[in-house]
Task: inverse folding
């Protein structure tokens, strides 16, 4: 009998504000300990929290991007627990009235096993709420003491909670990656996982098909997609083994150890906290007007899901009908008619699609496929080789577009273009200058090509006779010889035409 | 407490219990619970750094510090 896996995620995204959620202290990463811990961060008596507008704006942005309900009125609550890196003795969070309600995220799943095909899935988002981060404990510097750095205390977080809609490690990772891409795309979080800007808690349970949900265990604080997959795989197997050998699963919070690849219980349900949530009397309810919501909507960029539609659309009207987020701001809305495969790759991050748009604006949307091929081919390969991301690409979209224009108008061949590209990559410069300097201009003058072809045919009279008596394969030989004679500069299409004419003639 | 005080306290407590009973008898169905005693909405602050580093002043009153960290008895994870 098989087992069904049920996974839900809680993701803490650190919002990219300049200051903390309830005070004007800086949130810049890497400062000296406690130099960004102001009176509010260290909870001196008598201080009052004042909510950061930038944090709320980012929460609204996220809600709009996942098609969620934005609460016109939401409430901050105190979550009470004791730990030295939480100087107030409570965390300000949101409980029963969060700022963002139900939404959804469409994900592309790349199955991990064998030949299974990629597929699309919609993961429902339960809610997203604003809260403050805690400080950091530093262990081991002084004997029997723990050091506390409160720079991080009060950093704004948006906790995004999904429904238990994922049924494999591959789906959970696809969801986390899509969410990670989205929060960076809309500019609310820098997504730096090493610095803890994007932290995932994964709830895992297993059950027999058709039966009620099994008891879940929560894997805390995963900060890499690879660890997430390993942790889920291990945890699922552990739960199945436990149940099949007659054991029971106890609800628990667990940690993943990357060194051993195992998950281990941190605390069980019995010592789970009762957080005694109640509305924070220091903060009034947060009101978000329809007007403010619309102002924020106007700042949203074209979203991945809409961009994918646009890249694939063949007809303008159909594309406009399918648009999910009709944003009023003017952004590039030229359709390209690319394949779904290409479109998925081109919306994996915003910069790649921006680059395509910039490039296509030079060569025209009817040549977008050529741009896409170069971006997903040569450009991606070189970026990977040099360990660069799109932002650091040494060739601008304008430079690449300039070069593609010379392919389109027949000035250079594909192999000539690759040479131009290599030169641009290492030395910079514009295509026209490189073509000139390297003498890469194709010979498209039919008289000159005819002359070359005549010479080749005259010098290989025997082979010409063989060809004419039916040895078609020799055609390649003639193309090669003529190309060589032209030093690789003959326009291949023209050369083919002329050769064919003369050989049959 | 002397007899008089007991009597006063008894009367006061009874008053409080009567008030609780009265409040519990009110039909509140369909009324949205208040989350704050004042019916106002939260004021927002613009996202601009206004706080300077005051670590030295704050740590002057801390029982124990080291390398800029506040020290507390060891917390076992």
Result:
């Amino acid at each position: 009998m098989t087992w069904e896996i049920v996974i839900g995620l809680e993701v803490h995204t650190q919002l990219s504000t300049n200051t903390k959620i309830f005070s004007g202290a800086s949130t810049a990463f890497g400062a000296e300990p406690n130099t960004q811990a102001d009176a509010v961060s260290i909870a001196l008596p008598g201080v009052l929290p004042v909510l950061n507008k930038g944090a709320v704006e980012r929460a609204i942005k996220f809600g709009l991007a996942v098609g969620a309900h934005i609460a016109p009125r939401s409430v901050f609550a105190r979550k009470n627990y004791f730990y030295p890196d939480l100087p107030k003795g409570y965390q300000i969070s949101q409980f029963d009235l969060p700022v963002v309600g139900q939404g959804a995220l469409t994900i592309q799943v790349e199955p991990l096993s064998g030949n299974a095909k990629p597929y699309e899935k919609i993961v429902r988002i339960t809610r997203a709420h604003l809260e403050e981060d805690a400080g950091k404990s530093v262990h081991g510097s002084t004997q029997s003491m723990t050091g506390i750095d409160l720079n991080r205390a009060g950093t704004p977080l948006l906790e995004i909670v999904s429904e238990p809609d994922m049924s494999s490690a591959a789906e959970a990772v696809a969801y986390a990656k899509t969410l990670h891409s989205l929060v960076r795309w809309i500019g609310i979080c820098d997504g730096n996982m090493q610095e803890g800007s994007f932290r995932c808690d994964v709830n895992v349970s297993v059950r027999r098909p058709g039966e009620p949900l099994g008891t879940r265990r929560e894997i805390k604080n995963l900060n890499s997609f690879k660890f997430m997959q390993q942790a889920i795989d291990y945890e699922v197997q552990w739960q199945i083994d436990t149940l099949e050998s007659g054991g029971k699963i106890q609800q628990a919070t667990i940690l993943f150890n990357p060194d051993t690849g195992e998950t281990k219980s941190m605390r069980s349900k019995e010592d789970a906290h009762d957080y005694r949530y109640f509305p924070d009397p220091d903060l009034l309810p947060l009101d978000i007007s329809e007007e403010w919501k619309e102002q924020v909507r106007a700042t949203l960029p074209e979203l991945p899901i809409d961009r994918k539609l646009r890249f694939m659309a063949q007809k303008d009207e159909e594309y406009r009908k399918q648009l999910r987020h009709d944003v009023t701001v003017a952004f590039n809305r030229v359709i390209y008619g690319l394949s779904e495969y290409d479109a998925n790759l081109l919306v994996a991050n915003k910069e790649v699609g921006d680059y395509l748009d910039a490039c296509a604006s030079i060569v025209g949307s009817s040549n977008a496929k050529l741009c896409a091929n170069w971006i997903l081919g040569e450009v991606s390969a070189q970026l990977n080789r040099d360990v660069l991301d799109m932002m650091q690409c040494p060739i601008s979209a304008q430079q690449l577009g300039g070069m593609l224009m010379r392919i389109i108008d027949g000035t250079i061949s594909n192999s000539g273009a690759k040479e131009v590209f290599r030169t641009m990559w290492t030395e910079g410069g514009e295509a026209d200058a490189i073509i000139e300097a390297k003498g890469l201009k194709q010979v498209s003058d039919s008289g000159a090509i005819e002359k070359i072809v005549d010479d080749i045919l005259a010098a290989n009279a025997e082979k010409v006779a063989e060809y004419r008596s039916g040895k078609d394969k020799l055609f390649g030989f003639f193309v090669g010889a003529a190309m060589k004679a032209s030093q690789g500069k003959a326009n291949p299409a023209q050369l083919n035409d002329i050769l064919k004419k003369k050989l049959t003639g | 407490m002397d007899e008089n005080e007991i009597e006063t306290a008894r009367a006061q407590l009874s008053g409080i219990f009567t008030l609780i009973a009265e409040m519990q008898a009110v039909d509140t169905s369909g009324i949205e619970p208040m989350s704050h005693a004042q019916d106002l909405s939260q004021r927002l602050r613009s996202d601009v750094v206004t706080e300077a580093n005051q670590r030295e002043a704050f740590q002057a009153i801390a029982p124990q510090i080291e390398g800029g960290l506040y020290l507390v008895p060891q917390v076992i994870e």
Observations:
- The mean pLDDT of chain A is 91.
- The two ends of chain A are 72 Å apart (CA to CA).
- Chain A has three domains: 4-286, 301-438, 446-504.
- Residues 4-286 of chain A form one domain.
